[in-house]
Amino acid sequence: MNESIFKDNLFEGKKVFITGGATGMGFGFAKAFVEHGADVFIASRKEEKLKEASEKMEEMTGKSLLWKVMDVRDFESVENVSKFLADEWGHIDVLVNNAAGNFFCPTEELSENAWRSVVDIVLDGTFRVTKACLPLMKENGGSVVNIIANYAWNAAPYVGHSGAAKAGVLNLTRTLALEWSKYNIRVNAMCPGIVLTDSVKENLLLDETIVEKMESSIPIGGITEPEKMAQQVLYLCSPAADVITGDMIIADGGQWLVGNAFYAIGKEFLR
Fold it and tell me: What is the Cβ-side half-sphere exposure of residue 43, based on CA atoms within 13 angstroms?
């Protein structure tokens, strides 16, 4: 656990919505906001994971999470959550688009359904949720943080579906930063380093050899933790970043500067 550099009440009374917030990095983001005074709402597809996350949060912090089942691929589901939050809170101050999907596959072997499944979650899902939340932020302003990856602009083989979707999210981030500045809504992106959550290990089938190659590709900091990535999100949503919009924080330990780890890893995995 990394001790926070931010004051405990930094987000006191703020309303925060995190997609994919029940596990992995999303749960790490939720915990960081709760520990700094925010009321946090999480949403994902699996009810049991949401229940577990809320119970775990209460055990860890003494404060439970508000939650609801939502599928970012279904606009009606997303709209229902927006209406729920309008009734429950009236507004939100922060939206973190963290829901994602990924797996290794050469593009020539990628099916239409496989392509769509990732793009629908990552790019289309970010659009749906962000658009549905606009009425909740229009009056008071706020901050949107979209979670991307360094292959969104740096490219990597075997994750073309995710890379294309994340690149779209980065462009959407900058577009909305311009369009929604009139509402005092800041829109930024955060590019995390390699965080070995359970879902990453499972979806990318990572063994110790591949993990070692990942570690050796990072100039500083090594494989990181959700808590460290949460600090980047807290900063982007804090008053300290009130003149930052349409930008991104790259928190990957400089990995993008020396080439993408997915190239060597993908070759090892697929040979």
Answer: 24
β-sheet bridge partners, residue 40: 16
Domain membership flag for residue 209: yes
Catalytic residues, by residue number, are: 151
Residue, of 155 and 205, whose pLDDT is higher: 155
Please, which residues bridge with residue 44 across strands?
69
* Banded pLDDT at 57 (limits 50, 70, 90): very high
Q: What is the mean pLDDT of the chain?
A: 91
Q: Per the domain annotation, does 7 fall within a domain?
A: no
Count of domains for the chain: 1
Tokens of 115: 């392509």
Tell me the C-alpha distance between 31 and 58, whole Å.
10
Instruction: Look up the CATH number of the domain holding residue 36.
Output: 3.40.50.720
- Provide the domain limits for residue 104: 15-270
Least confident of 6-10, 79-83, 99-103, 265-269: 265-269
Contact 187/246 with Cβ under 8 angstroms?
A: yes
Does 9 fall in a domain? no
**Size (the chain), residues:** 271
Q: How confident is the model at residue 230 (pLDDT cuts 50, 70, 90)?
A: very high
β strands within the chain, DSSP E: 15-19, 39-44, 66-69, 94-97, 142-147, 185-192, 248-251
DSSP-assigned letters across all residues of 126-189: HHHHHHHHHHHHTTT-EEEEEE--THHHH--TT-HHHHHHHHHHHHHHHHHHHHTGGGTEEEEE
